[in-house]
Structure formats: structure tokens, C-alpha cells
Amino acid sequence: MTDLLLTNIHQLINVRKHPELLKGEALKELPVLQNAWLQIINGRIADYGSMDICPDATEVINLNGASVLPCWCDSHTHAVFAASREDEFVDKLKGLSYAEIAAKGGGILNSAQKLALTTEDVLFEQAKKRIHELIALGTGAIEIKSGYGLSLEAELKMLRVIKRLKDSLPIPVKATFLGAHTYPALFKEDHESYIDLIINEMLPAIDHEQLADYIDVFCEQGFFSVEETMRICEAGKRYGLRAKIHANQLHLSGGVQAGVELNALSVDHLETMDDAAITALASSNTIGTLLPTAAYFLRMPFQPARNLINAGAAIALASDFNPGSSPSGNMNTVVSMSCIQMKMLPEEAINAATLNGAFAMGLEKEAGSITIGKRANLIITRPIPSIAYIPYAFGTNLIDRVLINGKLVSSE
Ligand SMILES: [Zn+2]
Do residues 292 and 350 both lie within one domain? Predict the structure, then answer.
């Protein structure tokens, strides 16, 4: 039994006995224990309390007034990819349109082409390194999607990489099958055959190797229609895969309503929303996952977080880490940007990036709050005057140390 005690914690943030999905008003409440200790046994949170009565332990770390919060739970990433795409970034800066970049072989198909040429081992090593960097930035649970494969063989390769990451990383990893990310060149004129491939070949093979936890579809004009999204997600459901959908990014795609009808775990993006979509989401248990760094990188309007929260929706925040539209998985940036650009309150943003993020991965029993029995995946801050300082001091590294399963992570 290993036993570690953190003492003199200025603020122990997001302390909850019975964590529940936070909707609307409830997002504002971020429970904090002042001047606290936290006990960790066998990598899990064993107990906590006020410094007035402090227990003994084999190993003690005196935090001298630093604060502690649960690690970020990043519920939407595409962290397995073969190559960065800064050439396209520069092309866009020079004024090339999306269509022109696509014509030059850019976009998702560019990632797919490079992925096809990269071995499983190389993909694994690259992604592992990337995620270790994110852990040092405070990410303590992560979801990763396939979707740069777009063929049976390459989708399986991506999902096998994610499975290896699950087995080798110290943080919980969830795998989402996103075969319906776009249409590969081969099926450009024959969408029905690609959907057939997803449903009748990819899904059974993925099920056979138990490679996915969730299914995702890019529901968007020019990509997958509502009807196609429903059909693919219903097929996924037959294999036990609940939906997490890319919805309402570029247009009012109907993806939000489709997600609600499918009882999706989450509908993600939500840059383009109207009252009907907001009302539908708010009256459901589907989580709206906002990806502000993608809106920022694409210079799109930010997600209407305030309207969603005021309507009573459950909101999570995630990085959408991917080489095309959000080449950063830094959740500290995501939290800051949510306050600065979407007017989320610091408490709301922290809740959305921790507990609700955990719910958006089905990891609410493992991560996302200071709760007895959960993994001790914790951010130890540098001395900060208040919780609001976390999003306020954007771009400043406020993380002193990160604990994963109760062990200190080195940022080397
Ligand atoms: Zn995405």
C-alpha cells in the first residue's frame, strides 16, 4: 500500500461527494475546500479534509499554499495522426480557400493519405509522445477518434494504435470510431457504398477486436446528412457503441437534433446554433461539447455558451486536438478561451473541462472531480490568488506539478 498526503493546500477545487452531470445553473457551482489536505492511497483519492485536523502518512508533500484541482478531461481529440499540416495553415494565411486547399490535396484527405503510409508502430510512438506532453499540461483523461483511415485497413490501424495507447498510458483513454469523417476519394461519387462499408465491414471488424467505445459521424452539409448519420449511429448502437457526433460546426446541420434523438452521449462543436437546436439540446441529457480552439483557429464565431447554459444544457469543453483545425491539445488554453471569448465564468469553464468532460467519456466514476475512490489525477498549481486567475492569466503556465494515479509526472 502506498500512502501519500498533500498538505497545506490553499484551495482544493471541485470537491464532490456525489458527482452529477452539471446542467445550466449547476455549472456555476464549483465546490472548494479551503486550507485542506488530501490523502492518496494506491493511486486513488482516499480522503480529504481541513488542515485543522490533519492525519499522518508515510510520505507527505507540503504544498505551501498551492491549489489542487482534478486534471482536465479532454473528451474530443484526434490525437492519432501521421503529420502536422502547417503548409495548409500558411496557404490559408495567403488567402487560399478551403476548396483550393482541398484541390491541392489538403484537408482530412491529406491526413488520410499520410496516415496510410505510416506504420502502426510509428503512429503509436508519435501519439504517445504527444499525449505525454498533454499530461504535463494537466490532461488526465482523453478521448481519441479514428477517422484519418477511411478504409477498413487504415481505420483498424488507427483504432489498434488507440488500443495500444489505452494499454500503455497512465491515464484513461476512450476510443471513438469515426469512419464517417469524410468520404474517401474512391467513394466521392458513391456515398452509399462507403456507408455500406462502414456498416457492414468496418463495424463488425471493430467489434471483433473490441476496438471502440463510441461511434462518431461528421454530420455536416457536403459530408454526412442527418439520415446517414442516424443510420450509421444506429448500426453502431447494435454493437454497443453510443454516439458522440460532430454537429452544427459549419451549418445548421440538424446534427444536434439527430444526436438528441439517438440519445447520443455528446454532440460536439456547436458553432452554428439556432433556438431550436439549443432548446432540443437543453431538454435532453446529451452533453454539448464546445471546442473553442477549433473556432479560433478557423476564425469562426465562437459557440454560444451563454445561451446554452442559460437554456439549461450540459456543457463540456474539449480541445479537438487535430492537425487541421486545432493543432493544440492544451486544455488550459481551452479554459481561458472559453471565458474570454464565450463569457463562461471561471467556475463554469473548470466544471465543463473536468467533471462534465469526464461524463462525456463515461469516465465520471474515474476522473473529473475530487471524490473519494477516483484516480488521483491532479493538477498542483503554482501559487495563485484565486480560481479566476486560472483562465485570466492566459498563456501563463500555472501548473507546478501533475500527479497521475498519485505519482508525480515529470515534464521532461
Ligand atoms: Zn473533431
Answer: yes
Tell me: do 182 and 265 sit in the same domain: yes
How many residues comprise the chain? 412
Grid cell listed for 339:
471565458
pLDDT in tens, 142-188: 999 999 999 999 999 999 999 999 999 999 999 999 999 999 999 99
369-376 mean pLDDT: 98
Report how far ligand 1's centroid is from the alpha carbon of 405 (Å).
Answer: 28
Distance 77 CA to ligand 1 centre (A): 6
Alpha-carbon gap, residue 342 to 322, rounded angstroms: 21
Quote the ligand 1 centre to 92 CA distance (angstroms): 19
Residue 326: strand pairing partners: 322
Predicted local distance difference test score (pLDDT) of residue 110:
86
Residues 6+ apart with CB under 8 A from 250: 220, 221, 271, 272, 300
**Do 43 and 31 belong together in one domain?**
yes
* Contact yes or no for 91/101 (Cβ under 8 A): yes
Span between the terminal Cα atoms of the chain, in Å? 28
User: How many Å lie between the centroid of ligand 1 and the Cα of residue 248?
Assistant: 12
User: 1 CA to middle of ligand 1, Å?
Assistant: 40
Q: Cell numbers for 94, please give them.
A: 495567403
Beta strands in 14-138 (DSSP E): 32-41, 44-50, 59-62, 68-70, 72-74
C-beta atoms surrounding 161 within 10 Å: 28
**Mean pLDDT (the chain, rounded):** 96
The predicted structure's pLDDT at residue 65: 94
> Residue 412 pLDDT > 60, yes or no?
no
Domain count within the chain: 2
- Domain span holding position 183: 73-359
Select from 74, 192, 194 the least CA-distant residue to 133.
74
**Taking a C-beta distance cutoff of 8 angstroms, is the pair 173, 144 a contact?**
yes
Separation CA 291–CA 365 (nearest Å): 24
The DSSP symbol for 201 reads I
Question: What is the Å distance from ligand 1's center to 44 Cα?
Answer: 31
Give the whole-angstrom CA distance, residue 338 versus residue 290: 9
